[in-house]
Amino acid sequence: MTTRTRRTHLFRPVPPAAATCVLALVAACMWGQDNRLSPGKPGGAWAPGVDTREAAVSGLEVGHRLMASGQYELAIDAFNRAVLEEGLTPEILSSLGSANLGLGRLGQAEALLRRAVKEAPEWPAALNNLGIVLLEQRKYAEAEQILRRAYALDNGESDAIRDNLRLALANLDNPEHSEATGSEYNLVRQGGGVYRIQTP
User: Does residue 37 lie within any of the structural domains?
Assistant: First the structure.
């Protein structure tokens, strides 16, 4: 009599629902691996994410906007924040000097602008703004020299520097009649941080 060896099944039948879940999971993994699904990749399952963060406006730009609206104290605060962002650059020194000029603080304005000119001696904007401060202090001879230098370095391209130079020459020829003293003027910002005295 032949004895048959009974083979024991090592695996039990998997329920249909469980098998479906397993197959779905495997298929998803294989699909992600083959197609390398990732946000922003062409053919991926998701569209690229949208960066909703706006570029921060620099303290220097905020300061210039405040200067344009005549808010010089707030402009100084903004320029001081810009120092933390960029350091005490010639542009920030010139901007702080110009804001102090707008407030009538001529001594502080002159000191800051002279520092800006010392660090950037061939920058027409700083020279121009220093020339304005000198005009306000009735230092017409030095103002004329500074503004003439600014005009030459700018190749005569800035109308603001040209107008300031004309004002310096007019006051130099007739020092008894000043067109740029007291509060009867406005600072008008042109391109590149250059300011022009605008009289009523």
Answer: no
